[in-house]
């Protein structure tokens, strides 16, 4: 990948206040109507859950879960974003713990381990922003309980990219919201790359959606549910023949 984690983090720190203001208390229309419904369907949150919210931004989805009675640990690698999340979500802090952690660093991720195993993990539109996702998937697998799920939404790699390359992982600059101060670093991976990281980690994919904005026929995002199957051997998770 061409761009560094440090550069990406600096850009998100610069965009943090704009992002918090634009997303507000309820997220924007795209997140509310395209991302959230299917993520929530696959996640199936309930008050007994203890959920890890990955790259939580200003805490919109963490708060959405908290309103449903769910206990949440939300983290982001932008200290500024976490500061803004704590400020915006004061009324939900009895259900949410916000932390600074690096999704590319297994030590940082495993430091999120608490006395109770997470029942589920979720990531809304962040996988394409992360330089190296293998440590994230490996750590989430260890942090969630047996038969727990990791639900993630990310931009559709087949249709949403500014380059003419698909098979080769690569990075490029683009914007997420019109008017943001800095273009961010995007990290393209094929469906094959994303799914094989799930399989190599030990997950079984048992839920999948492709979602369109404005009722188009070309999808903007994928939503994947990866399940940690109790007692399953990694080598038996997928048949690649």
What is the CATH first-level class name? Alpha Beta
CATH topology, what is it called?
Rossmann fold
Counted up, domains total 1
Strand content: 25-35%
Helix content: 25-40%
- Main sheet characteristics: 7 strands, mixed
By CATH's scheme, which homologous superfamily applies?
Vaccinia Virus protein VP39
Low-confidence region ranges:
233-241
* N-to-C order of helices and strands: HHEHEHEHEHEEEHEE
Strand order of the largest sheet: 3-2-1-4-5-9-8
Rg (C-alpha, Å): 17 Å
Structure description:
This is Class I SAM-dependent methyltransferase. This protein has helices at 5-23, 29-43, 60-67, 79-88, 106-110, 134-143, 191-201; strands at 50-54, 71-76, 96-100, 118-124, 144-155, 170-174, 184-188, 203-211, 221-228. The chain contains seven helices and nine strands; from the N terminus they run ααβαβαβαβαβββαββ. Helix 1 (5-23) runs parallel beside helix 4 (79-88). It is globular and about 45 Å long. It is α/β, with parallel strands linked by helices. The protein has a single domain (5-230), classed as Vaccinia Virus protein VP39 (Rossmann fold, 3-Layer(aba) Sandwich), CATH 3.40.50. Strand 4 (118-124), helix 6 (134-143) and strand 5 form a beta-alpha-beta unit.
């Amino acid at each position: 990948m061409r761009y560094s984690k440090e550069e990406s983090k600096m850009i998100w720190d610069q965009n943090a206040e704009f992002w918090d203001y634009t997303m507000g208390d309820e997220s924007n229309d795209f997140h509310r109507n395209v991302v959230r419904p299917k993520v929530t369907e696959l996640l199936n949150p309930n008050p007994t859950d203890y959920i890890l919210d990955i790259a939580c931004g200003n805490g919109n989805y963490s708060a959405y879960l908290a309103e449903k009675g769910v206990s949440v640990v939300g983290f982001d690698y932008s200290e500024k974003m976490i500061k803004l999340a704590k400020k915006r979500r004061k009324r939900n802090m009895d259900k949410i713990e916000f932390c600074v952690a690096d999704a590319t660093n297994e030590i940082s991720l495993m430091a999120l381990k608490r006395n109770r195993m997470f029942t589920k993990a979720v990531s809304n539109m962040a996988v394409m922003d992360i330089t190296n996702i293998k440590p994230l998937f490996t750590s989430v697998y260890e942090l969630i309980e047996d038969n727990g799920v990791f639900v993630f939404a990310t931009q559709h790699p087949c249709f949403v990219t500014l380059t003419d390359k698909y098979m080769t992982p690569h990075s490029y600059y683009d914007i997420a919201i019109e008017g943001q101060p800095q273009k961010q670093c995007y990290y393209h991976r094929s469906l094959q790359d994303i799914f094989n990281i799930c399989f190599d980690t030990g997950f079984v994919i048992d839920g999948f959606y492709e979602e369109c904005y404005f009722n188009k026929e070309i999808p903007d995002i994928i939503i994947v549910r990866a399940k940690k199957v109790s007692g399953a051997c990694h080598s038996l998770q997928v048949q690649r023949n």
